[in-house]
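Hi all, posting the design record for the shared folder.

TITLE: backbone redesign
STEP: 1 of 1
STRUCTURE INPUT:
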């Protein structure tokens, strides 16, 4: 689960991290009202969407010469003018895709006198099985570009989970940044704070880009991106309350109600598969034969008839779907349960696109019998390769 920048900064501030004064607003009137409460004279007006690259993004409605989704303002009047342009319009960044995201809220905060910009993130180093700080002196930059062009400028500091962040760890991070004086002392305090937040809130990513050294020599979290482990949200009702469903795909929201692993994609062949690995292989083979999957959907190993029905309805609700491939290898999941769920869903919502079904494993013959005797216009397949070729051909009209 992702949250907005202003929510991430408030959360980190509750652990003791230094942030600027700021407020989230939802209207031009609120922007004017709250900007007047900030000391100025420099303000920053930030679009709040779940995507990076906001500063370099472009608003669809404003033309290519318009400013991006993060803007400096030097008066309350400028704040208001920017808010009027940004709210309700669609911001397109490298991470949103061409469709972009509508800006429904802004974060207005005090400007900062920046001396240096640094990069910091905390994530799980899966190679070592430990949390790790990823740090670089190239803050404010596209970190993927830095990793590609100058990988030597990115340093990973693994943390022993039994010890936490030690004095040696903070010293190493400070050394990478080249910090001294008050900034170094701030680092000794801040790095354990960020790690504590990461661990206690079950984050999967904590990114501060940039972490700034101000001209007065102090550190400040200038931007923050936080993602949480969805499997641990039951432990954090306060985090769940931060969820902004307007930033999520409606189909993904519906899928979460049934504990379905669903991710919307840009293709036109809907997929229903049991098992994440098999789902990935199914999407790969669809691409191999020249088409694109419309979704990743893993119904799980022990799905009920109701869950399968819900999954099928979610797929058919996507207007981009021009064909459906059901690929089930029955282990714990029984093929007859899949068949019954599909039939129930088709009877409820209808079937307006080609449907190819490949069933193998537990009760496969029974599942095929149920579908064959259902009267549905379904194409059966012998194996995954056969299924992929048939659905791609059906969608392409061959």
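Okay, here is what came back for every position:
SEQUENCE:
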């Amino acid at each position: 689960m992702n949250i907005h920048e202003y929510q991430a900064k408030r959360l980190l501030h509750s652990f003791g991290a230094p942030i600027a004064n700021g407020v989230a607003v939802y209207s031009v009137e609120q922007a004017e009202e709250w900007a007047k409460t900030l000391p100025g004279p420099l303000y920053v007006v930030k679009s709040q969407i779940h995507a990076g690259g906001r500063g370099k993004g472009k608003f669809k409605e404003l033309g290519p010469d318009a400013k991006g989704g993060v803007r400096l303002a030097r008066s309350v009047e400028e704040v208001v003018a920017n808010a009027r342009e940004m709210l309700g319009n669609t911001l397109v960044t490298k991470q949103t895709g061409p469709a972009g995201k509508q800006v429904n809220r802004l974060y207005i905060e005090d400007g900062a006198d920046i001396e240096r910009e640094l990069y910091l993130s905390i994530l799980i180093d899966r190679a070592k099985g430990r949390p790790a700080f990823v740090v670089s002196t190239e803050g404010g930059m596209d970190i993927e570009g830095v990793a590609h062009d100058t990988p030597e400028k990115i340093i990973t500091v693994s943390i022993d989970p039994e010890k936490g962040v030690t004095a040696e760890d903070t010293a190493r991070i400070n050394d990478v940044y080249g910090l001294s004086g008050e900034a170094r002392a701030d680092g000794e305090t801040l790095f354990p704070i960020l790690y504590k937040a990461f661990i206690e809130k079950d984050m999967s990513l904590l990114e501060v880009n940039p972490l700034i050294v101000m001209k007065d020599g102090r550190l400040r979290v200038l931007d923050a991106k936080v993602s949480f482990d969805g499997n641990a949200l039951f432990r954090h009702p306060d985090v769940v309350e931060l969820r902004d469903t307007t930033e999520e795909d409606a189909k993904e929201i519906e899928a979460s109600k049934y504990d379905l692993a669903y991710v919307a994609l840009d293709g036109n062949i809907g997929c229903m598969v049991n098992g994440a690995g098999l789902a990935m292989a199914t999407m790969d083979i669809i691409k191999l034969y020249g088409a694109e999957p419309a979704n990743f959907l893993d119904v799980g190993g022990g799905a009920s008839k109701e869950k399968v029905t819900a999954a099928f309805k979610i797929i058919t609700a996507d207007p981009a779907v021009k064909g459906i491939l059901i690929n089930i290898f029955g282990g714990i999941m029984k093929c007859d349960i899949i068949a019954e769920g599909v039939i129930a869903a088709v009877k409820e919502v209808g079937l307006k696109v080609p449907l190819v079904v490949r069933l193998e494993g537990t009760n496969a013959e029974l599942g095929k019998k149920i579908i064959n005797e259902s009267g549905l216009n379904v194409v059966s397949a012998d194996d995954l390769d056969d299924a992929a070729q048939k659905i791609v051909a059906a969608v392409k009209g061959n």
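COMMENT: The radius of gyration is 25 Å.
Let me know if anyone wants the other runs.
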